[in-house]
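Teaching assistant's notes for section 4

Start the section by putting this record on the projector. Ask students to predict, before seeing the second block, whether D-isomer specific 2-hydroxyacid dehydrogenase will look compact or extended. Collect guesses on the board.
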Amino acid sequence: MVESGAEVRYTTAERLPEDLRGADALFVWDFRCTGVEAAWLAADALQWVHVAGAGVDAVLFPALRDSDVVLTNSRGVFEGPIAEYVLGLVLTFAKDFAGTFAAQRERRWQHRETERIDGSAVVIAGTGPIGRAVARTLRSVGMRVEGIGRTRRDHDPDFGVVRGFDQLTRRLPHADFVVAASPLTERTEGMFNASTFAAMKPSARLINVGRGALVVTEDLVAALRDGVIAGAALDVFDTEPLPTSSPLWTMPAVLVSPHMSGDFVGSLPALAELFVDNYRCWLSGNPLRNVVDKRLGYVPTRASGG
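Reveal the predicted structure now:
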């Protein structure tokens, strides 16, 4: 549909400075691409940048933030799949699936009791669409959830209670599971560190499906090694791919996955369809979907508060 009414240039990060000249819109298919900043001086006609991902931190450099260029993301594609993934991780910990798989490989009959998740407490850091989808999914299986976000709310439809980021450390001692689902901003970078890990229960597990830089990796490794927390499931990392030298690969009670919690069979066509729908809005002069507040670093919604 796009090619029938526009000149489409398929490019790479290396060729982007040349291909960006005269372009009105840029579709960043690889949301981790950092080549846009290097090519920015060539953006002489650019009006709109769309990212095929929920996070836009890779392209939200100062020159773009301060420009009049509209930035949109792919909110609406990943929320449900990520919530399902988080539930799967919670069950993996609670039901000790890793232990079951290991015993099966060794042909060892090892009966044991596992944990209930019904009634357990979850703190979700990040009350945007992904955090909300996680909250609804976990509540549906009887878990007690509360949110940590930019704006406090006492009667939130998804979380019940949302507290400000400044209350994170105070709420962590109540949590059996802690889910990091915040966008990466100056305020959230490194929010999970030695201090926050020390506030968690020794039996608590951290699940990160937000951004790798939300967590200070060295502090997490130390907390896991010293038994400060019981485990971690990590789908995102401050360096990706995770280096083979990282101790996280082999630490007990750590689950490592390669930034795949939102990816599902059919996700690529869904991303393309969302862009095409937004392209139609752009051509017709209608408001674009998923416009990012470049000051905040994400798409604000009346209900989310961040």
